[in-house]
Amino acid sequence: MEILVYGTINSVSLALMGLGFAMVYGISRVPNFAHGALYVICGFVTWTLFQKLGLPYFIAIILSLGVNGVLGMLMYRFVLIRVRGMNISEIIASYAIGLIILEGLRFGGFRGMTYTLPVFMEGSLMIGGVPVDYHRIVMTIIGILLVAGLWLFTHHTRIGLALQGMAQDERAALMLGIDSDFMAMLAMGFGAVLAGVAATLIMPLGNIVVESGYHVLIMSIAVCIVGGLGSWMGAFFAAFIIGFAQILTVVYIGSHFQMVVAILAIILTLILKPSGLFGQQKELEERV
Amino acid sequence: MKHTQLSVCLTLFVSMFVFLWAGSAFAEKPIVIGAPLSTAYLYGWDAERGMKLAIDEINAAGGVNVNGKKRLFKIEVIDTRDLEPGVPVSEALMALERLILSKKADFILGGPNRSEAALAALSLLSKYKKVSIVTSGVLTPKYHKTIAANYDKFKYGFRIHGEAVNLIGEIIANFADLKEKYGLTKVFIMAQDVSHARGAAKVMGKVAGSKGFEITGTEIFPTGTTDFSMALLKAKATGTQIINIWMDMPESAILLKQWYDLKIPALPFGSTLAAAEQPGFWKATKGKGEYTLCNVVNAGNAPSDATEWTMKFYNAYAKKWGVEPEGLGSSSSYMAVYVLKDAIERAGTLNSDKVVTALEQTDMMGVYGRLRFDPKSHQVIVAKDPKDGAVGSILQWQDGKRVVVYPKSIAKGEILLPPWMNK
After folding, report:
1. pTM of the entire predicted model
2. What is the sign, positive or negative, of the torsion defined by CA atoms of B349, B350, B355, B359?
């Protein structure tokens, strides 16, 4: 039962971390290596609005998500648009932005272990004899609802369908009058908001530290490679595979190896099925 | 009249230049302290603050008397990043070499902070014959053993704080008290995957086992782990009564919050538990960290009356930095500067070999007790009483305060158990 409960929680947490990265790549084909930095900055913005400016917690979260979205769009509009289509340059540019944000925060004094956000609900309850705190339950429920909401958004709204069209075939989308650059910018904004949602849900469990930006980036990449680059639903399922694999490793082998699981998953996927579980990136090459 | 005024102005102008030139020519060159520290981490910045406080005090009092000439201290801090996950040891070595070659450091104080990096740095110190006193982090017993094993080569390295074996001894003494007082005998060990913590966990398991404690499990966590629930549930399932934690990563705060949320009936007893050392821990965890114990290595890093100097340092640090001494490197880094000053003054020179000899003869009362180095291993001599040697300090968070509970000679309170542990 412990494995089931904490495996699910861990998986949803990984899915939250990776969804934004998967969405941006799926739509704009830009590997956003500043994803972890956007995750961290949202935590610090929320902290500043809530702890320093005294805004209500919920308002602080909404505002910081807005800030993150705008930041993501600005990153695309002023930097990434210039290197779009050049994969290595996209990685270098986005990673550089991420480094500037993370190391800038550190330089600006955001270091140490005392930056925290409050949990949504205090206390814990027993699920099948396993104690779980309310915040993790809330995080899991919101995570699952978010995925469902994303599915509905991309399948039943005008913007969502346009984004999906871009993801499927950018040239065809262009011919149908969809502004691909605007949509890519929008995707970056959505991705940044999703990074922010992950931050505001996960960070109250611990503290806001710059280092988590690098951790989130690695886990996002792992989830997306296993799920298949470009498929956010694939990323969601991959999160469950890695999430449960990590928990099983902790229980039967040792905590020491839990990070190895994620790295091993990347290596195995790249060897056995480079396109990942649901990806289309290299499918043709694989067939050839 | 105009001509006279012009002459006076010119004379003043020239005199000013002469004075400035003379001043710069005759002022003694400052003694440069190179501080290789992982400045983004607690054990880096607490050391930096401790050293800067001591340097300010010494400079304000006139500086260091080197063979009759007063010279000021100057500090050059460089970020080694060695406490950050994934940063190779070579980064710290490059930073150290830059301090020596570019910044012309006369002495090295502080770090590198990570044991692996400090061990690797010994060869570099030997190559450049630079005297170094490690003051923060670096808990591996290998450090002083390496110096003792090859004294002629590594004699330039000193360590002014307690090491992992001392820490284990202090923790075991507390376990014995907990066993006697509350009947706690089952210990679960959680450690971070870094040299000193892995080593300490291994030794801890052996020592605790030999002292009649049952080790219910040992878990090693990679740096950056963000979920400890399964390990905590393992601890609970095995009837664990004490969780011994060896972690300096920020994520250890998550472990302590999870411990509270899951109401694990075991006392968290940490060492190098950076998250719980900081005065802001209580606010950051909204009191969830209450009852957490941690070994802060030396007295002075938490309030106590170990010596007359302890609270003077404590208050001066709080006044200068707006926060109480924060981590295990605060008081030792502060004292290292005073110890170096004392050694230089006795040696009457900055010559490395002579300063090494002077440091070996150090015997002064400091913030955390009597400071002396073992002449062979250059490890500070530790004791339970500040009159005999450097004393450690174990604190427990009680009602929002860091209360020193060990050693008895300086304790301000007794260990309390969380209410969900009281039968």
Report:
1. 0.77
2. positive
